Amino acid sequence: MTQVGISDISKNPSIFDKLDDLAEVVNKKTSDVKGVFIPSAYLGLFEKVFKEIEYKKFLKRNSSLMDRPSEDDTLLDGLDSAY
Questions:
Q1: pLDDT for residue 69
Q2: What is the dihedral of CA 57, 58, 60, 63, to 10 degrees?
Q3: Are residues 27 and 7 in the same domain?
């Protein structure tokens, strides 16, 4: 897998036009991998993976909404006790 530096991308964005292989986007100062470049020719192979990642991120962002009762639940509780 090829490594491409963040500073290389900012200096020469057309670097992606030349890539036909997977590449790691790396901060070369800290050696942290920031992402992975996947050529569009391979997107079909990763569709299910991308959807799964998006779903897990959705669940994580909205987990606090799942833990507390909704306004509808509290409204119905009040109606049940009235009858």
A1: 60
A2: 180
A3: yes
Q: Which residues of 32-60 are buried (b: 16+ CB within 10 A; e: fewer)?
A: eeeeebeeeeeeeeeeeeeeeeeeeeeee
User: 50 with 83, same domain?
Assistant: yes
Q: What is the pLDDT of residue 18?
A: 87
- Token representation of residue 57: 């991120």
pLDDT along the chain (83 residues), means of 10: 91 89 93 92 90 93 72 55 50
Looking at the structure, tell me whether residues 52 and 30 fall in a common domain. no
Rounded Cα distance, 8 and 28, in Å = 10
Give the total residue count for the chain: 83
